[in-house]
Amino acid sequence: MKKYVCAICNYVYDPAVGDPDNGIAAGTAFEDIPDDWVCPDCGVGKDEFVPAD
After folding, report:
1. What sign has the CA pseudo-torsion 34, 7, 22, 45?
2. Side-chain half-sphere of 29: how many Cα atoms within 13 Å?
């Protein structure tokens, strides 16, 4: 699964890890995260994330 990077603060969402502090289980693809999820570091929405190289 592909990693995604926050274009604002460079937080990397890694599907292998998920975001357990915010209810996103390990193994959750970025596309499957709820639309109201926000970056745990800076608080912007999913639309500010871009695929990692």
Report:
1. negative
2. 4
User: Tell me: the pLDDT tens digits for 1-52?
Assistant: 999 999 999 999 999 999 999 999 999 999 999 999 999 999 999 999 999 9
* Rounded CA separation 9/22 (Å): 18
Say which residues have a Cβ less than 8 Å from residue 24's Cβ, sequence separation at least 6: 18, 33, 37
- Phi and psi (nearest 5°) for 45? -80, 175
The pTM for the full model equals 0.93
* Separation between Cα atoms, residue 36 and residue 50, nearest integer Å: 16
